[in-house]
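Researcher: Here's my situation. A collaborator sent me these components and asked whether they could plausibly form a single complex. I don't have experimental data yet, so a predicted model of the whole assembly would be a useful starting point for our discussion.
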Amino acid sequence: MVQYVWLVLLLPLLGFLVTGIWRNRLSKTAIAMTGCGTVLGSFLVSCVLFFQALAPGFRSTQVHLFNFISVGTLQIPFDFQVDQLTLVFLLIITGVGFLIHLYSASYMRTDAGYGRYFSYLNLFVFSMLLLVLGANYVILFIGWEGVGLCSYLLIGFWYDRNDFNQAAKKAFIMNRIGDLGFLIGLFLMISRFSSVSFGEVFAQASALGTHSGVLVAITLLLLVGAVGKSAQIPLYTWLPDAMAGPTPVSALIHAATMVTAGIYMIARSHVLYSLAPATLNVVALIGLATAILAASIALKQYDIKKVLAYSTVSQLGFMFLGLGVGAYGAAVFHVMTHAFFKALLFLGAGSVIHALGGEQDIRRMGGLRRKLPVTYWTFLVACLAISGIPPFSGFFSKDAILAAAYREQPLLYYVGLAGALMTAFYMFRLFFITFHGDFRGTEESARHLHESPPAMTIPLVLLALLSFLGGWVGIPSSLGGKDLLGNFLAPVFRGGPAIPMPVAGGNTDLVLMIVAAALSIAVVFWTRSLYRQYKAETTPGRGLVRWLEHKWYVDELYDFLFTRPLPRLSNWLERHVESPVIDGAVNGMGRMVQWGSRKIRLIQSGQVGLYIFGMVAGAIILFLIAFFLI
Amino acid sequence: MGTVLLILIPLVTGLAAFLIPGKAAKPWALVSSLVTLARVCLSISGSVHGASGADVSWIPQLGSRFTVGLDGMGLVLCLLNAVVFPVVFIANWKKDYERPSSFYGLMLLSQAGMMGVFTAMDALLFYAFWELALIPVYFLCSLWGGDRRIRVTFKFFVYTFLGSLLMLAGIIYLYFQTPGAHSFSYQAFVLAGRALPATVQGGLFWLFFIAFAVKMPVFPFHTWQPDTYEQSPTPVTIILSAVMVKMGVFGLIRWVLPVFPEGVAHWSNVAMILSVTGIIYASVLAIRQGDLKRMVAYSSIAHVGLMSAAIFSHNPIGLEGVIFQMFSHGITITGMWVVVGIFESKSHTRQIADLGGVARSAPGLAIAFMIICLGNIALPLTNGFVGEFLMFTGLYQFSPWAMVPAGLAVILVAVYILGMLQRVLFGKPGEHTQGMKDLGTGEYIALGILVVLIIGFGVFPQPLLDLAHGTTASLMAYF
C-alpha cells in the first residue's frame, strides 16, 4: 500500500489542474466539490497508510518515481520516503487542510475568483505534501519553493489591491533570502557528501562525528532557510503581513502548511543537528527570542488577524526552542496541536470578520458572544488550548517543550514560561475585547450580525474537538499517560545519536506543569478583570506601549536598511556607472577613433612636398632599424 | 548528410524567400522552420546510433574543410535554434512587416548561420558562419528597428565585429601553429593550442574570450545589448537573445576550454570576477528599468553572467548545467519577449508604469506570463531551476567565494521580476490596459508551446542532460 503514496499527491494536483483550467466553466458547487474532495481523498489515503504504520514491523519505506536529475556523481532521484514523521505531517496537512477547504467553500462563495482560489489552495496542499514526502533535500526544496509560490499567489489573491500585492511580494522575497541560505547549505552538502538523499547524507555525517565544522556550517545554512520559512528572527516580518489574503488562507499558512515546513525540515535533519550542538543552541536561542518578541508585539495589536499572526510567530518560536533542546518529538507534537487551535482561531476570526462585513479592528467589535454562539465557544476552546490550560491540547505540547528546556537549562524554562504567560494574556485580551462587553461597531453592522452557516461552523466544531482532545495522544508518563505520539515517532528520532539528557524526576516535571498551569489560569482571570468591560482607547500609547504598537519598529528598520536603498543603488548605478563609465568608455573609444581619423585626414592635404618628406623620413627610420637592430 | 541539411534547409529557403511574393513569405518561412525542426528531431533520435557528420573539401589551398558534426551540446543548441524560429513566426503571425520577403529571408539566413556555428568543426568555417549569422541580423535591426535604430545598430555592429576580428586574428595565429600542412580543423586546433606555452595561450584566450564575451555579453562588454534589444523588432530581439547569445557561450565551451587549457586556468579568476560582478550589477540595474525590454535585457545579462561563471568553474556538473541552461534560458526569454511584443501591440506601450491590471483584462496572457516569469526566477519544476541548481553546484565546488555573491541573484531576480509583475499584471487596469484583448490564436499556440517546454523540461530534465553529458564527458577528458 505504501507504494501508492503518490496518490496522496496526485489528488490535490488533479484538483489544482481541474479547478484551474475549468475555473470559468465549472459551477461553484463543482469547483468546491473537486477542491474539497481531492484533499479529503488524500486524507483518507493518509489514514490508511497511518493505520498500516501502527502495525508492528512497519519500517521507513522509499518509493521511487523516476530519475529527476542524474549528472555524473550527483544523483537526485524523484523519491518519496514514508516514515512516522512523514505520516504525522500527512495527517495534519490533509486533515486540517480539508477542514479549511470545507470552510472556504462557504466563506469564498461570493468571490468572483472562486475557481482560481481553489486551484491555488490545492496547489498549496500539493506543495506541502511534496515537501514532507521527499526522500532527499532537493525534492524537499521543490515543495519548499512551491509553498512559497502558493503563499505569494494567495496573499496577493485580491490583486486589485496594491498593498496586498506588496505583502505577497514581501513574503516571497523574505522566503527567498532564507532559500539562498538553504541552497548554499545544499551545495556544501553536495560538495562534501556527493549526495542529497537523507539516508546517504545522514550516514556520512554520522561518520564525521560530533562537533565537525562542516556539519555546523551545513546545519546553520539550512537553519537560515528554516528561519525564513518558519518566520523566525530576523526573517519573521512577512508573516504578519501575510494576512492580506483571504482569512482561510491565513489558517492554511499558519496551521497546516508553509510555516511548519522549517520545523519539519529541522526535525527531518535531526541527525545532522544533533551532531552539531552549537547549531542547536542557536536554534534554541532564536526560538526563545522570537517567542518573546512576537508575544510582546501581540500584546498591543488591535487587528484580530494581526494578533493571531504574531501569536503564530511566537508559537513557532516555542517549536524552535523544542528543536533546539533536542526535543524533536515535542516540537512535532506542538506543530500538531498548534495546527488544530491556530486553524480554529483563524477560521473563528474569519467567522467574526464575515459577520461584521469585513471589519478586523477589535476596537469596533465587542459583545459578539450572543450573536455568534458557535464561534464564541469554539474560539474559547482555542484560546484555552493555546494558553496552555489543562486539559486542552496546547497544555501538553507546550509543556513537553518547556520540560525539555528545563532539563537543558532552567533559564530557558523560565523565559519560555514568561512567553507562555504573555500568550495567555494576549489571547484572552483578544477574546474578551471581541466577544464580551458591549458592541462598539456601527448600528448598521450591528443589524447584520449573524452566525455563519453550518459549512463554516462544522469545521469550527471539529477543530474545537481536536483542540480539546488532540493533546491526549501525548500525555507524558509523569501524568500517568502513555505518550502515544512520542512512542510512535520514536523510531524516527532514535536514528540519530542519543542526546544525553539529565533525567529529571517525574516529580520535577509534575511541579513544573502545575506551576505553569496555575500561573496561566491566574493570567486568564487577571485578563478577564482587565478587558471584560473594554472601552476603546483613543489616545495612542506612550513609551514601551508605543514601541509595542509599532512592532518595535522592525519593519521601519528593514525599510531603512534594505527596501529603500536597493532601488536607490539601482538608480545610482544607472546614472553614475552604467551610462557615463561603462557605456561612456565604449562611446569614448568610438569618438576617439573618429577624432583620430579627422586629425590624420589633415595629413592628406595634397601638398606633394609633405608626402615626399614623409616618404624619406620613413625610409630613413626603416634603414636605421635594419642597421642597428637586426 | 543530416547535419548539412540543418544548415542547407534554412539557407536555401532563406535565399528563395527573397524571390517569392511577399504574401507567401510568412507561410514559407514557417514551413521551412518546421522542416528544420523535424530534421533536428531526427538527428536527435539518430544520435543514439552515432551522429552523422560531413567532411568535404572546401578551401583546400588553406587547408580548410567543410567539416560539420554534432555532439550533445550541438544537438541541444540546434534544437533550441529550431524550436525558437517557428515559435517566433507563429507568435507574430498577425503582424505584417514591410518587405516581408526580405524580412523572412534574412531571418532564415540568420538561422542557417547559427546552425553552422553550432555544427562547424573547422575554425575558418566556424568564423564564416559566425559572421553569416550576424550580418542578416544587422540588416534586420537597421531596416525594421525603432527610431534610434541606425545609431544603435551601428554600435552593435562595430562592437561585435571588433570582437569577431580579434577572434579571427587568434584563429589565423593558431592556424600557423598547427603542425605539418596547416589546417583549420578542430582536432588540429586542439592539438596546436594545447602545445603552446602558457603565456601565449593566455594571450590567445583573450582574443577569443573578448569575441565571445561581447556576444554573450559578459560585463563590462554589455552596453550594446539593452539598446539593441530595445530598438530591434521583437522577432529579431528574440533571435538575438534566445539563440545568438548562446553562440558566445557555445564558443567558449567548444573553442576555448579545450584549446587553451593553461590560458583558461591562468585567467579564469579574472573571467570569474567579471562574470560574478556582472550578475550582481545587471540584477541591480534591472530593478529600476522602466522599459520592459530593457528590464528583460538586464535580466538576461545576469543570467548569462551565471553561465559564464559556471563555465570557468572547471566542473562537470556546472558545465552540464550551462548546456542545459542555454536551452532553457532560450525558451524562457523567448517567452518573455513574446509577451512583451503582445503588450506592445495590444496596449501600445512597453513602459512598466503604463501597464497594470493585465490579470483582470487578459487573464490568459497573465497566466502564461506568470509561468514564464517563474521560469526566469528559476522556481523548481521549471526548466530554469535545473540549470541554475547545477551551475551553482559547480560554482560552489570551484569556490564558495564565487558562489555566494553570485547567489545574491537568487534574491535579486525575485525582487525585480515580482516588482515588475506587481506593476504589470496586478492592480487595476489603466488606460492602456483597459479592455485589452486576450491572446489570439497564434499567440496562444506559441505561448502554449513555451509553457509546456518550461514545465516539461523542469519536471523531466534528464533527456536534455543526457545529451549534454556526452559533451561534458569528452571535455573533462581534456582537463
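Model: Some features of this prediction you could bring to your collaborator: Chain B has a mean pLDDT of 89. Chain B touches chain A through 53 residues (CB under 8 Å).
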